[in-house]
Amino acid sequence: MQTPKKIAIVGSGLVGSLLGIYLKKRGHTVHVYDRSPDIRKINFSGRSINLVLSNRGIKTLQDIGLEKEVLAIGIPVDRRAIHVGQDTVNEQLYGKNGEVIYSISRGLLNKKMVDLAEKAGVEFFFEEKVWDVDLTTATISIGETERGEWITKDYDLTFGADGAFSRIRHRMQRQSMFNYSQEFLNIGYKELHIPANADGTHKINKNSLHIWPRGNFMLMALANLDGSFTCTLFMPHDGENSFASLKTTEQLVAFFAKNFPDTKEVIPDLVEDFFKNPTSYLVTMKCFPWTFSDKVALIGDASHAIVPFYGHGMNSGFEDITVLEEMMEKYGDDWANLLNDYENSRKPNADAIAELSYRNFTEMSAKTADAKFLLQKKIEKWFSDKHPDKWMPLYSRVTFSLQPYSEALAIGDFQNKIMEEVMQMENIEEKWNSEEVENKIIDLLK
Amino acid sequence: MQTPKKIAIVGSGLVGSLLGIYLKKRGHTVHVYDRSPDIRKINFSGRSINLVLSNRGIKTLQDIGLEKEVLAIGIPVDRRAIHVGQDTVNEQLYGKNGEVIYSISRGLLNKKMVDLAEKAGVEFFFEEKVWDVDLTTATISIGETERGEWITKDYDLTFGADGAFSRIRHRMQRQSMFNYSQEFLNIGYKELHIPANADGTHKINKNSLHIWPRGNFMLMALANLDGSFTCTLFMPHDGENSFASLKTTEQLVAFFAKNFPDTKEVIPDLVEDFFKNPTSYLVTMKCFPWTFSDKVALIGDASHAIVPFYGHGMNSGFEDITVLEEMMEKYGDDWANLLNDYENSRKPNADAIAELSYRNFTEMSAKTADAKFLLQKKIEKWFSDKHPDKWMPLYSRVTFSLQPYSEALAIGDFQNKIMEEVMQMENIEEKWNSEEVENKIIDLLK
């Protein structure tokens, strides 16, 4: 049991809302602040990538009895559909036992989470801008503008769940011994849209994550409940094949006709979407420490913002809550040690998923179209099917297991070294499923 | 020639003052702002490491005719004196041709630079706190406190020379695509003091950089003009042999008696200095870009803050000015391209000196007491003496040449690989200066 505290959560996003439910369930008073209006009352679109919910995130929902409500608004996705040419689509199942991830629209899920949190007794304060926090007292400062008048609100504990550009972290960053990095990718992204058919059905297979890999750029599509798809174009900000190079309707239409010919039928509003929707940025943010005594703690994107290419932004944020919950169970009212153990145990895993996510852009945009890479994946799958006790592919480890990310990364690197040797075997293309290859892998695993 | 501009420099430190002189000489109006009082009117001591001025910094002074005035307040240092035990001091000359670096007190030099800048016509505004800059107009905002009232001042161009915790950079950091990192070392430092003898002479050799290397901590001493030495104790913040472990006079005295017995006579006020002077932090800060169109630019520590173990903080900052001067010569009034070329050409070298400085803590604190390492240095020196055209040691490259830091680092890494092989030769201790070793190095250099 924990003594009830008065807790502020800054940020009513996915992690903030779900954290609120967990804290409320333990008897705390929970106030969630957000600088934006109530997401349930606004039109949310135009600058998002669809979310992918997988086992780690599902576990956090399950532990508090919410997985059914959330999965009801998701669409199961069991494979990658790789659009390599005009009419050629290669499919790769994600798991061998029918494992799925869920495509969920960010707006829809966020509304649902706020609803669920409110039902659980969490109080929300929208359009309240938190600019600062006193690290020694957890008191937050709220005001219309950064330089205008502020009022203060006292709490026992304040969580910064306010995303990659967190104000709570901004305050922590001004201490000595606070390590911090933000690194932008030269890849930006833009939301596009595949509408539903007239009868509400999906225009392409809704149970696939669609990828059009084109080297240093790619298009992606994930299904929505209403029959539409949210598409995301990932591309360099400048240089050849970049957002900067597509300035006119003619350039855009020619670019799509050349690179994504099979999207012509399914993205009718390409030109309007492209020039209306903003080009967004991708950043990897790392920092440490995440907490200050028993007063302030960062969680989710505020403590570790990652690029979206592994589909683990939300899942890793939700897993933060699972770790925090374990610590609440273990430490009870000893919040200083609770938060200390939380940040120390979680940090290596946050770093690992950042690294995995960063690497996965190259895998998705370039390697999925590479014959050698596809053969490697085929060998891994074949060996894993024969020896499930000896080999779980990295993607499965990260997405379908609950193994700490840092272990998954380390084992993935070890497996990759083995596969590098295997791929160098003579005539590997012919003998890929031979006893020789099988024995070689078994040998290298020793 | 350049059309005269109205230029603000934020920060009246070494780089800000010298940059002011350069800009003034080109006919610009130059206003230097500093949040602190005029350094010439205050007592400056207690939290500094003595500066080391070497060839890169001297070149920047020389190009504008100031090297003589500055060198007059420096003390030439031609060797390391390594205090390995009670009475054992090993000496290593820095260069083979009498090359020297100069030990200069930071306070003294800063006063001198402000004097010289004022004489050149640079205007100084002390105790004026610049909190913000408008990146599109170069207008700066000044006020008593961060949250209080501000006034604005218009300029054509604003330089941030305001150090590792630059406010000008703080504004730039809030843009998209601004990469930034700050990483604190777990090593802190504290200033201690060796006073002059009664007759004004130095108690130990003033022409040596004194090091007491003790593994993960060390003491260092650099001479001052007045016969004293500024000592710096570098040590982990916590753990064994740390600042946290020295809480009482007894602990401190016992620690020095055990680890630095030969300092007992020369640091009479150890206890008072230690508990009075603050423990300071060491940070490596990297960022990019450094400039915003033709309006705002970072320079010195504001763009690349490094740890002090190579003695290149000031030298690299001064070299920034040399690069900027080259660009002013090349681009004239085309400030946008001028600043763009400045940041692009300078950034790899800033990264390289950051890396070299970081690595040098281990070299100074641990390796200088390691027999194997000393033998390696001896072989390098011997080979370099025989083949000056084939081998310049890394330290000389960095400190006595003007070769770009990034090239020095790359060649240093290459040389180190060669020396690793050489050190693994059988009986290298006996045959270190044999023809066999000489030929081996020549061979590996091919």
TrEMBL record, chains A, B:
Pathway: Cofactor biosynthesis; NAD(+) biosynthesis; quinolinate from L-kynurenine: step 1/3. Residues 7-355 form the FAD-binding domain. It comes from the Bacteria. InterPro entries: FAD-bd, FAD/NAD-bd_sf, Kynurenine_monooxygenase. The keyword Glycosyltransferase does not apply. The keyword Oxidoreductase applies. It catalyses: L-kynurenine + NADPH + O2 + H(+) = 3-hydroxy-L-kynurenine + NADP(+) + H2O. It is an enzyme of class 1 (oxidoreductase). Its cofactor is FAD. Its EC number is 1.14.13.9. Keywords: FAD, Flavoprotein, Monooxygenase, NADP, Oxidoreductase, Pyridine nucleotide biosynthesis. Catalyzes the hydroxylation of L-kynurenine (L-Kyn) to form 3-hydroxy-L-kynurenine (L-3OHKyn). Required for synthesis of quinolinic acid. Belongs to the aromatic-ring hydroxylase family. KMO subfamily. This is Kynurenine 3-monooxygenase. It comes from Flavobacterium aureirubrum.
